[in-house]
Amino acid sequence: MNYFFQTPPPTRFINSWNETDPLRTLFIGNPSKSYGIPVEFPTRVRSYNTCINNNKMEEQQIQKAVKCINNLIDILKYDYSIQVIRPDTYDHSNSIKTPGWELTNTNENSCPRDTFSILGNTILEAPMSWRCRYFESQVYHNELLQLWRADRNSRWIQPPKSAMTDNLYNFDYPIYNNNNERQHYANKYTYILNNNAEPVFDAADILRCGKDLFVQRGFTTNKTGIEWIKREFGNQFRIHETLLENNTTPTHLDAELTILRPGLMMTCPEKPIKDDLLRQIKNEENDWELFEAPEPVNHKMVDGCYSSKWLSMNVLSIDENTVIVEKKEKPLIDLLENTYGFQVVPVDFFDAYMFGGGFHCQTLDICRDGTQKSYFPYFDRIYNK
Ligand code: ARG
Description:
Layout: E1 23-28, H1 41-46, H2 59-80, E2 83-85, E3 96-97, E4 102-103, H3 112-115, E5 116-119, E6 122-125, H4 141-150, E7 155-157, H5 182-188, E8 206-209, E9 212-216, H6 223-233, E10 238-242, E11 257-261, E12 264-267, H7 275-282, E13 289-292, E14 316-319, E15 322-326, H8 330-339, E16 343-347, E17 363-368, H9 377-383
Parallel strand pairs: 1-2, 6-7, 9-10, 12-13, 15-16
Antiparallel strand pairs: 1-17, 3-4, 5-6, 8-9, 11-12, 14-15
């Protein structure tokens, strides 16, 4: 795509401050050439030790996901005139190697959300936290480079590239969950990454809402990672470390916390926001309504899908009134339409779930209308900015 000569030129190519302003441009991931998740400590933990090296993905499974994604692309392009950008294809059966370690293969590049966060006019490239995702962001570089060049107002940054040597990981964390052993760790908010190691995070741990960023610490983001985000972005955003109760697999925030429009947040009944932050969000000055997601219809994930059933919450907003939801999630669709007055666009996506997640995971909004605003008066007062 040639962004230089597009007419009429949008004033901004890279501009997105929240999850719900009118959507103009987005990346959609690419599951083709995916490969089974390679064995390393975090993937063993994430999969309860069920992943095995060299388990090629079924081509049929990939094709089913491609079909879902192509359908999503058509809807966004032709029904909503949204510009869709695609990453390069990369063959994940290739091995990777750094000075410190090597892996026989990588996984997939269907989740641009995991590797980038668009913070206003800034492309924040995540260092990632699992070895198999070390180079994953590179499939987006060709397209991002063009956008970055064309938009002289934009910035593109990433933290020091992590070495991801063994001292990043907390090997005490249980790979199995015998006797619900992980619950003890969840109670202490202790996970698989060492908090004092180099800064790491996955971008999907960041939930954007104007002046506020909610950043989950867990399997994919450590405390130093959040500290790095605070130092880089603390004068432009209020950054809230976000912990969820009972979260025995804290990997990305976008299937546990969903902002549907300013003032309306959907939470996960099994993994509530920890009390101190929850109290602040619910402070009456903010005037936000929180409601719990209904029990998902798609509750049994296929083998090889490591996400939880709460992918039902992983919706994609076209604007404040229009939201894409998985077609089978009738209770959620009814609730959004009838109680909250949304226009819901039901889209088939279950067959794509095993490629890293749902609509929000497998997309990345590059441009939405709008500017940075504060939606939390209570935070305005206590942060005094
Ligand atoms: N946190 C979700 C789970 O535990 C997975 C969400 C995946 N999100 C993503 N951006 N890849 O199931």
